[in-house]
Design goal:
Pfam families: SR1P (PF13790). The protein is of the alpha+beta class. It has 1 helix and 3 strands. The structure holds zinc ion (ZN).
């Protein structure tokens, strides 16, 4: 099973099906600077 981890706060965002154990780094909604910029 794969795990999606926030590269900023290191919290687990989501899990996804995968043949092997994989960790992918992304940004969770609260760490997404682009989203915050759009709100301002
Ligand atoms: Zn985060």
């Amino acid at each position: 099973m794969g795990t999606l981890v926030c590269q900023t706060c290191n919290s687990t965002i989501d899990h996804f099906e995968d043949e092997k154990v994989t960790v992918l780094y992304a940004k969770c909604s609260c760490c997404d600077e682009n989203k915050h910029a759009e709100e301002v």
